[in-house]
Amino acid sequence: MKLALITDIHANREAFEACLEQAHLHGADRLAFLGDFVGYGADPGWVVEQVQDLVSQGAIAVRGNHDEAVARGPSDHLVEDARRAIEWTRGQLTPAQLDFLGALPYTREELGCLFVHANAYAPPGWDYILGRNEAVRSMMATEARHTFCGHVHQPALYHLSSTGKIANFTPVPGVAVPVPGHRQWLALPGSVGQPRDGNPAAAWAMFDLARLTLTFHRVPYDHDATAAKIIAAGLPRALGDRLHQGT
Fold first, then answer.
1. Domain Calcineurin-like phosphoesterase spans what residues (predicted)?
2. Inter-CA distances, 33 with 139, 209, 230, Å
């Protein structure tokens, strides 16, 4: 089975469509969504509708912090641009779509894997995995051999040996990485809708459960069109401008 890992779409229709198309071309048998379907982008209704449909067909999906903020209302710690986007997004979704986002689980365990937006040790707290310390803490909080997280908009891969030795590296797009089960692995596919690693191309990853390999991918898309839609919607210009640089 090939499992496509898709996260942090952030209401970016063009990037989401590009990733779905490439996942299909690469033979994905199933999809796993790691949260943050909404926030920042101009097409929240369309994105949520697509995710709802795909979940009804068997896709895995978990809740992100932006999904929770849209479903429940923005929290005080959000920065101003994110708060404005959340408030705007709440007005774009139907009650059923808001209920869908609010009902998503924080975690999902299936196929010997853990799927979570932020981390395994405190999923509702939304702590970021920014380095080895957080990665180790997350891997030690689960018995799953493979953990897949979103939240951090930069691709990364960590592994923990049976002796507690941790290592990490930045994956090369298109290169399959062996992820054998005698170690624990934590993968961050990067963001579909708002990359922040200096590369504007959308990011996703494919986990091959038969071969136990993980391949990270980047997909160019029309980020100019996406940015124009964000500005036309009256959302903060910075949310569109940053798509050009991937920052």
1. 1-208
2. 19, 17, 23
> Residue 75 has what pLDDT?
73
pLDDT at 74: 75
CA atoms of 193 and 84, how far apart (whole Å): 18
Q: What is the tally of structural domains in the chain?
A: 1
Report CA torsion sign: 12, 17, 23, 29. Answer: positive
Strand partners, 124: none
Give the DSSP H/E element, type plus range, for residue 108.
Answer: strand 107-110
84 Cβ neighbours under 8 A, 6+ residues apart: 235, 236
Query: Could you tell me the residue range of the domain that residue 86 belongs to?
Result: 2-245
Could you read off the pLDDT of 85-111 as tens digits, one per residue?
A: 899 999 999 999 999 999 999 999 999
Alpha-carbon distance of 101 to 62, in angstroms, equals 9
- Position 151: which residue type? H
**pLDDT digit string, tens, across residues 100-145:** 999 999 999 999 999 999 999 999 999 999 999 999 999 999 999 9
